[in-house]
DNA sequence: ATAATATTTAGATATTTGTCTAAATATTTA
DNA sequence: TAAATATTTAGACAAATATCTAAATATTAT
């Protein structure tokens, strides 16, 4: 859970997840949606990937990122458990 | 959401929430459950309080902390929305 | 009133984190 | 093969964070 909550503890990364909820996007497309540098976005994507919140797939010279809803379920379970 | 995710981004604070899920506890009782100093626990409780994840009530010389499940709902909503 | 107990506040410090620029790697196009 | 494009890696730096000890505040008991 540590990596997941760490990943969620940043506004930019949460917005990336919200973007990927709509559709898969390349690293470049994601970067264009923000005012920060591409290396910084790449770093954020790495943190999201380590938390398994996103997956990536190489498509030629692009890398396509997708939301991993399986892991989202794990967070849900943790939170719901707090209410029991 | 920022303060909430920040508050959740720490193992000790998450464990405090899990303790308070069972029953209300004083600051001292909470501190005894961990190996870190009382001032550090006090700091963690402050962060949880700022995020509105816990509430506190003075009972004589003690301060009783409780889990605020209303805010837990806000996190749930954010997460659930990712899956839609 | 004084001492004891419960908790927080203050100040210091080491670690982690988000950001940047520059350079490296990989792929496609001319 | 050389140039262009997409992305990551490396290294640096300022800001944020978790922890500590010591001191302050508030309440209760002697």
Written account of the structure:
With 84 residues, chain A is of the alpha+beta class. The first copy, chain A, has a single domain (2-83), classed as Arc Repressor Mutant, subunit A (Orthogonal Bundle). Chain A contains five helices and three strands. In chain A, strands 1-3-2 form a three-stranded antiparallel beta sheet. In chain A, strand 2 and strand 3 (62-67) form a beta hairpin. The longest helix of chain A is centred in the last third of the chain and has 15 residues, at 69-83. The mean pLDDT of chain A is 97. The interface between A and B is medium-sized, with 23 and 24 residues.
Q: Major sheet of chain A: size, sense and barrel closure?
A: 3 strands, antiparallel
CATH topology of chain A: Arc Repressor Mutant, subunit A
Oligomer: homodimer
Question: Structural class of the secondary structure composition of chain A?
Answer: alpha+beta
Strand order of the largest sheet of chain A: 1-3-2
Terminal Cα span of chain A: 19 Å
- Give the uncertain stretches of chain A in residue-range form: none
Number of strands of chain A: 3
* Amount of beta strand of chain A: 15-25%
CATH class term of chain A: Mainly Alpha
**The CATH homology group name of chain A:** Winged helix-like DNA-binding domain superfamily/Winged helix DNA-binding domain
Tally of alpha and pi helices of chain A:
5
The H/E string of chain A reads HHEHHEEH
Mean pLDDT of chain A: 97
Principal-axes geometry of chain A comes out as elongated
From the 3D coordinates, which CATH architecture of chain A would you assign?
Orthogonal Bundle
Pair of chains with the largest interface and how many residues each contributes: A-B, 23 and 24 residues
Estimate nothing, just give the exact number of structural domains of chain A: 1
Radius of gyration of chain A from CA coordinates: 13 Å
Helix content of chain A: 55-70%
């Amino acid at each position: 859970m540590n990596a997941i909550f760490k990943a969620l503890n940043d506004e930019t990364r949460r917005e990336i997840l919200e973007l990927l909820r709509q559709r898969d996007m390349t690293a470049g497309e994601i970067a264009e949606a923000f005012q920060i540098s591409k290396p910084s976005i790449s770093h954020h994507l790495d943190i999201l990937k380590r938390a398994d919140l996103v997956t990536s797939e190489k498509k030629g010279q692009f890398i396509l990122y997708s939301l991993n809803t399986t892991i989202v379920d794990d967070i849900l379970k943790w939170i719901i458990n707090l209410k029991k």
